[in-house]
TrEMBL record:
NCBIfam families: transpos_IS1182. Coiled coil: none annotated. Residues 302-426 form the Transposase DDE domain. It comes from Leptotrichia wadei. Transmembrane segments: none annotated. It holds the Pfam family DDE_Tnp_1_6. This is Putative transposase.
Length: 441
């Protein structure tokens, strides 16, 4: 999709009027907008395969390599009405009411039919067997009377359908849109009313190498921290395993670090406190673990008042993805009469520290990576290449909102934009006689 031509009717018009499109057709009859729409709808998987075939071809031409991938995200508004939100708490409330109704129906059905079914699914199977055995035909419309068997069957199937609908709506999200159930309500940067308005959107993740988009995927997560691992899995499934992963601070977590190190990736992820730790306030904050001395032999921290914080126990916490985060808990032996208490702690109890050793070790290694000469160049190029790709997609190609609904169709739409972006990038490079962007030389 080139030059803001991003609708099927605009494509049809250009096929009939634009000489460049006519050259592509090679005297074949111009397809109408319905043909283009059916092609996009019927060949979603083939279009995605075509995109990655293009990436492999660019790799064969030495336009791209498997050295560095620059990852970033942007929130693209979904094709859904803005005020069609469905919140998880509200759906759970109706779900509980539905379970009460289904349970009451089960009790009444068992009493009336002298049965002992444990759930409505068993009742449904029983009714379906009766319908087949008795060869009962359902009746609908005015002037007819439904049998009790038909009434019971319609009731139990409606409960099951509603239960499946509730399960499919939210899953692990806190919200969804009624007109595009795959979209999640998020806060976008384009907040013209300055009131933090929530809009239905998708989190678009892209990976860029040598100025080409080499991978993309859509996620319902408003934040980036839980998108890195599944996104890299998508790239690996297409035989695109890059050596260096360059991303911003939004991707930093112990789970992501552990995955990268265990799978032979080199992370160049900017720590979330990278800029903050440079300021004077951070360095003079005596309550922070970074500003306390640690004794490895005794496994104790020493505070500003020269008092010991001893190890107590290990705290384990499971996040939404199922990863277990372990933190060592240290507690001061006695904070009574400490002149630094107001600056050091917020509670009347003894000072406690929660230290994630694995996370701090991973963060230290990543910070060492980004502060090397190579790391500085990679960080600089991340902002240039990824943000440049987003700028071309949004401004030059006018991709600011999805035209299709549902994740599968929306993904095909953005893939078509990525194919157009890569083709135009390749043509421009060849026209200018520019080699692949090997910025490390």
């Amino acid at each position: 999709m080139f030059d803001s031509v991003n609708t099927t009717r605009a494509i049809e018009k250009n096929y009939r009027e634009n000489i460049n499109y006519m050259w592509i057709l090679r005297e074949c009859p111009a397809p109408d907008h319905n043909t283009v729409a059916r092609f996009i709808s019927n060949y979603k998987i083939k279009i995605e395969d075509l995109f990655y075939q293009l990436i492999n071809r660019l790799n064969e031409l030495n336009e791209t390599d498997l050295e560095n991938v620059f990852i970033d995200s942007i929130k693209i508004e979904a094709n859904a009405n803005r005020y069609t939100f469905a919140w998880k708490k509200v759906i759970n409330k109706f779900y509980e009411k539905l379970k009460i109704k289904a349970n009451d129906f089960r009790h009444s059905f068992n009493e009336n039919n002298n049965t002992e079914f444990n759930n409505i699914y068993e009742i449904k199977d029983h009714l379906e067997k009766d319908i087949l055995d008795k060869d009962i035909e359902f009746v609908y419309g005015r002037g007819v009377r439904k049998t009790q068997l038909q009434r019971d069957y319609e009731t139990v199937t409606s409960y099951i359908a509603k239960e499946n609908e509730y399960d499919a709506h939210i899953k692990n999200r806190n919200s969804c849109s009624k007109t595009d159930r795959d979209a999640t309500f998020m806060r976008k940067k384009e907040d013209y009313m300055k009131n933090g308005q929530l809009k239905p959107a998708y989190n678009l993740q892209i990976g860029v190498n040598s100025e080409y988009i080499v991978g993309l995927d859509l996620f319902p997560n408003p934040t980036d921290v839980r998108t890195l691992i599944p996104f890299l899995s998508v790239l690996e499934s297409r035989d695109l395993k890059f050596k260096n992963i360059v991303a911003d601070a939004g991707y930093e977590s112990e789970e992501n670090y552990e995955y990268l190190f265990n799978n032979n990736y080199t992370p160049y992820i900017k720590p979330q406190n990278y800029e903050k730790q440079k300021i004077r306030k951070f360095k003079q904050d005596i309550s922070r673990v970074e500003n306390m001395s640690f004794n490895e032999e005794t496994d104790t921290y020493t505070c500003a008042n020269n008092r010991k914080l001893e190890f107590r126990h290990v705290s384990k916490q499971k996040n939404k993805s199922g990863y277990i985060l372990e933190k060592k808990v240290y507690e001061c032996t006695d904070c009574a009469g400490c002149p630094f208490a107001e600056k050091c702690k917020r509670t009347p109890h003894n000072k406690k520290l929660y230290v994630a050793d694995n996370f701090l070790r991973f963060r230290k290694q990543s910070q060492e990576n980004i502060t090397t000469g190579k790391g500085i160049i990679l960080r600089m190029n991340r902002s240039i290449q990824v943000e440049g790709a987003f700028g071309v997609l949004k401004q030059n190609m006018n991709f600011k909102c999805f035209k299709y609904r549902e994740k599968s169709k929306a993904k095909v739409e953005v893939i078509l934009f990525a194919v157009g972006y890569n083709l135009r990038k390749y043509v421009h490079k060849k026209y200018r006689n520019v080699k692949a962007c090997n910025f490390m030389n």
